[in-house]
Design goal:
This protein is an all-alpha fold. The protein has helices at 3-10, 14-36, 39-56, 66-84, 111-119, 123-134, 139-146, 150-172, 175-186. It is built from nine helices and no strands. The longest helix is centred in the first third of the chain and has 23 residues, at 14-36. The protein starts with a helix and ends with a helix.
Length: 187
């Protein structure tokens, strides 16, 4: 991110803010979409994040830290959006993530399985996975962005991957395998 552009926005330059918004929208939307799953919610969250950025940027002391700071504001907005949803879940149909690289989610071969697995995670876990694996942030950078310890990043990543693996394994069991168990329990 152009530090001079950020500095101009800090001084209240509306044209600079418009340029910043155009340059930065895709980056923030991508994270919001990964966390929230729903394109409409992600768009709302991204727009709200830019409102928050405009309001709070005069307090940003170091323009070089703009990127992490903007992620932090966006993640807060995503948490608020997730809390407003009545069921806290997204539909599989609305959950489409475009990975940065073809092998970004190599451990999960089937994209639909990945989407269903992400859907089952808490927002805390989704945020960590999106930042670490979709954006490729280091655990240290994720920790700084979220305001948590590096060890918490590792713990959440571990729990999220285990939960996703368990859900995908349960889904992979064929209905024929689970049918006899169901019939026996009815007797």
């Amino acid at each position: 991110m152009d530090q001079e552009l950020v500095a101009r926005v800090r001084r209240g330059d509306e044209q600079a803010f418009e340029s910043l918004t155009k340059a930065d929208y895709a980056r923030l939307y991508r994270v919001a979409r990964g966390v929230l799953g729903d394109p409409h919610l992600a768009e709302d969250a991204t727009q709200q994040a830019f409102i928050d950025i405009w309001r709070d940027i005069p307090r940003l002391r170091d323009p070089a830290k703009y990127e992490g700071w903007s992620y932090r504001l966006l993640v807060r907005v995503c948490y608020a959006e997730a809390k407003r949803r009545p069921d806290g879940e997204t539909s599989v149909e609305s959950y489409a993530i475009e990975p940065m690289a073809a092998d970004a989610y190599a451990p999960v071969a089937d994209r639909d399985q990945l989407e269903r697995g992400l859907q089952r995670l808490s927002v805390d876990h989704r945020v960590v996975l999106v930042l670490r694996f979709l954006l490729g942030m280091t655990p240290e950078t994720v920790a700084e962005t979220l305001g948590i310890s590096r060890w918490m990043v590792y713990a959440r990543s571990n729990r999220a991957l285990k939960a996703m693996r368990t859900a995908l394994e349960a889904e992979a069991r064929s209905p024929a395998e689970s049918a006899p168990i169901a019939r026996e329990s009815l007797r």
